[in-house]
């Protein structure tokens, strides 16, 4: 018994020594400042790997290469990446490992809202920087905001606001929702329904389908029976793809209009234009927008053989912006870098006059797009008509409504 | 208009029809599993991946070689069957005498590898495969708008299921097959080449999965994960029907498709779970499954 106690005490002592040496190491890196390490944590193999995945890693590497070429920094920049498998515990463990033992200064991508919330907590605890380019939840900049998290590309509010408002204005005033039955789907449905009602439309009903349902015909028949003018798809990835495919087969698109609430260019590419033509939704980035986006996207295409999603373009911009902030601040200390980030204006191929607010929301223009008909598409990946540019100030939740404690009112 | 539990009878009939379509896929896949388990005693976890391969082959045939839907319906199952025979000869045949668990682990590993290869090549969003021209459009059945393609799926799968049942239960070759399952050594003593039969059975079982994959290609997105989304439900169907029971797997496949379809109307959130609730109840009441016999 006594021996066991001694053993435990020795063990505890060894552990605390190990812990203190980790802190010493971290201090050394921060002081020396000759190395900035960036971690891309994403879904490398699961349902969202086409949206982020290897494409995000490539985009981050492009940002590092471009920064090196432009700014010629005296310090080293390193990139690591990992697969979080869409599991919050895997994500937060990886973040801990990276921050504690690998000296990672900044993490990005981090798609999947559940993973993002977990990683954001670890980041605040370890006082590093998270620039999230992939998650959708508005909680990152509301209840769960931290001084160290930036939400960069989009959120459910912006998607709902952009799609919902514009569609109601064009006469789509009665809605039925097809909703993925988990937190993300529910919040997307609720946010959109609020926008629809606020703009004078009405919501006729909703059907909740299980995540990764293989067959949507039954749910679509219910949507068809509702006689709503608009069927809103509050789901993502494979679920969105299969809903759209079945909607075409059952002739739903002849009488009703589909509005994807989180549809991205990879989904359109996977389905093809004949199936998706006429769909409307909100995007944060479109490769074929102007000369600057085309130039960058073609370079990206050269490496990945596909055009970037808004997440991947966002990762590029996030890494570039972060490196510029480190350069200007003259340190990789998280507090100093965050102060710099929140005071600068972001101008690159992704964002024009982008601003990071005190709640961590990066505010930039969003785009309401409509999918082209096959005949209108001039080249591969030429998929969208940009129907409206939604200014950042209108696209995102106003600061006055923020539930983030960091916002001084 | 008359109603059933607050749902208009027309909508109810429509959902019944759709349930039958999904049930056709369950029936075809669980039939393949049942045949393989019955003859080889292997729990073939690679079935979902092979179903995905069937759909992928159809897509590849169309896009790389210009092979149309009808030829794919013949060629893709043959290719999947051939792949199955290679798997059986090179790996599975060494496992028959061991515990079921070894076969399960091997095929599960194979499923992960196959899905990984296709995911690496084609990404997870999948590829579009359009409905063959003959089937574009729909029938107006009065109570619903049934796409022609879905009607064809029901017919084709029922025909294949019936043919398989007839072959195994009513022909002399089927009788040999059943004998080989019951007592392989004795059957071999009568001069029947049992290892060859076993090999062909596995090839046939997975070819059924490939056939289901081609049928599914125009109706669902052809993606590397399409099999793994389906296979767990199909296993539940096999357990409910009774492991190894041919007729059981066909009837339960169709029946569960319909029950699942009904659940999607009355309680959509539970539609992913209902099959497993039924499985639990069946296991409590009849551990060998509805159509199975205790050994």
Number of helices of chain B: 11
Radius of gyration of chain B: 19 Å
At the third CATH level, what is the topology name of chain B? ABC transporter involved in vitamin B12 uptake, BtuC
Dominant shape of chain A:
globular
Please, what is the average pLDDT of chain A?
88
Largest interface: A-B, 39 and 40 residues
Please state roughly what percent of the residues of chain A sit in beta strands, choosing from under 5%, 5-15%, 15-25%, 25-35%, 35-45% or over 45%: 15-25%
Largest sheet of chain A: 5 strands, parallel
Q: Helix and strand string of chain A, N-terminal first? A: HEHEHEHEEHEHEHEHHEHHEHHHEEEEEH
First-to-last CA distance of chain B: 51 Å
Q: Would you identify the regions of chain A where 5 or more consecutive residues have pLDDT less than 50?
A: 13-32
User: Assembly type of the shown chains?
Assistant: heterodimer
The N- and C-terminal alpha carbons of chain A lie at a distance of: 59 Å
From the 3D coordinates, which CATH architecture of chain B would you assign?
A: Orthogonal Bundle
CATH class of chain B: Mainly Alpha
Structural class, judged by helices and strands of chain A?
Answer: alpha/beta
Number of helices of chain A: 15
**Into which percentage range does the β-strand content of chain B fall?**
under 5%
H and E string of chain B:
EEHHHHEEHHHHHHH
């Amino acid at each position: 018994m006594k021996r066991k106690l001694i053993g435990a005490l020795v063990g505890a002592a060894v552990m605390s020594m190990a812990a203190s040496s980790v802190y010493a190491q971290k201090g050394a890196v921060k002081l020396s400042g000759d190395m900035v390490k960036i971690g891309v944590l994403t879904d490398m193999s699961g349902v969202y790997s086409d949206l982020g995945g290897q494409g995000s890693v490539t985009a981050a590497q492009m940002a590092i290469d471009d920064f090196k070429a432009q700014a010629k920094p005296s310090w080293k920049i390193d990139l690591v990446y990992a697969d979080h498998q869409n599991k919050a515990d895997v994500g937060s463990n990886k973040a801990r490992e990276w921050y504690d033992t690998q000296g990672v200064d900044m993490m990005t991508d981090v798609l999947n809202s559940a993973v993002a919330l977990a990683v954001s907590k670890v980041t605040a605890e370890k006082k590093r920087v998270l620039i999230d380019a992939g998650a959708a939840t508005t909680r990152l900049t509301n209840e769960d905001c931290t001084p160290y998290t930036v939400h960069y590309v989009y959120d459910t509010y912006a998607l709902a606001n952009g799609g919902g408002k514009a569609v109601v204005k064009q006469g789509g005033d009665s809605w039925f929702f097809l909703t993925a039955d988990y937190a993300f789907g529910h919040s997307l449905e609720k946010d959109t329904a609020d926008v629809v009602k606020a703009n004078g439309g009405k919501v006729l009903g909703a059907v909740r389908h299980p995540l990764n349902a293989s067959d949507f015909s039954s749910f679509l028949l219910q949507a068809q029976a509702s006689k709503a003018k608009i069927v809103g798809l509050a789901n993502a990835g494979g679920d969105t793809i299969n809903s759209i495919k079945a909607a075409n087969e059952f002739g739903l698109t002849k009488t009703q209009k589909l509005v994807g609430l989180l549809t991205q260019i990879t989904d359109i590419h996977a389905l093809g234009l004949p199936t998706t033509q006429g769909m409307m939704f909100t995007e944060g980035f479109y490769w074929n927008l102007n000369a600057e986006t085309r130039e960058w996207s073609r370079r990206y295409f050269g490496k990945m053989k596909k055009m970037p999603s808004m997440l991947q373009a966002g990762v590029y911009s996030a890494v570039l912006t972060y490196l510029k902030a480190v350069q200007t601040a003259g340190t990789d200390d998280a507090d100093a870098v965050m102060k710099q980030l929140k005071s600068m204006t972001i101008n690159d191929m992704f964002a024009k006059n982008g601003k990071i607010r005190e709640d961590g929301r990066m505010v930039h223009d969003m785009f309401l797009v409509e999918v082209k008909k096959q005949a209108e598409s001039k080249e591969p990946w030429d998929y969208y008509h940009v129907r409206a540019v939604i200014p950042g100030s209108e696209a995102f939740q106003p600061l006055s409504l923020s539930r983030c404690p960091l916002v001084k009112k | 208009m008359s109603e059933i539990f607050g749902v208009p009878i027309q909508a109810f009939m429509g959902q019944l029809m759709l349930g039958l379509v999904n049930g056709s896929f369950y029936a075809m896949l669980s039939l393949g599993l049942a045949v393989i388990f019955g003859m080889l005693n292997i729990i073939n976890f690679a079935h979902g991946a092979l179903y995905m391969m069937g759909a992928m082959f159809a897509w590849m045939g169309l896009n790389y070689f210009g092979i149309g839907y009808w030829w794919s319906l013949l060629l893709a199952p043959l290719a999947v069957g051939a792949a199955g025979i290679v798997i059986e000869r090179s790996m599975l045949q060494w496992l028959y005498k061991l515990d079921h668990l070894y076969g399960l682990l091997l095929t599960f590993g194979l499923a992960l590898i196959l899905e990984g290869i296709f995911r690496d090549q084609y990404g997870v969003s999948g590829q579009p495969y359009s409905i063959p021209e003959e089937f574009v459009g729909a029938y107006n059945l009065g109570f619903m708008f049934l796409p022609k393609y879905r009607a064809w799926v029901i017919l084709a799968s029922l025909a294949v299921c019936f043919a398989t049942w007839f072959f195994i239960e009513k022909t002399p070759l089927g009788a040999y097959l059943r004998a080989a399952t019951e007592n392989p050594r004795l059957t071999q003593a009568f001069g029947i080449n049992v290892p060859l039969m076993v090999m062909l059975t596995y090839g046939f079982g997975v070819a059924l999965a490939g056939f289901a994959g081609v049928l599914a290609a125009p109706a669902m997105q052809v993606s590397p994960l399409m099999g793994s989304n389906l296979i767990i439900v199909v296993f539940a169907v096999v357990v409910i029907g009774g492991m190894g029971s041919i007729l059981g797997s066909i009837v339960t496949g169709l029946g569960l498709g319909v029950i699942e379809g009904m659940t999607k109307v009355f309680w959509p959130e539970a539609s992913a779970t209902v099959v497993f609730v039924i499985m639990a109840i069946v296991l409590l009441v009849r551990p060998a499954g509805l159509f199975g016999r205790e050994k």
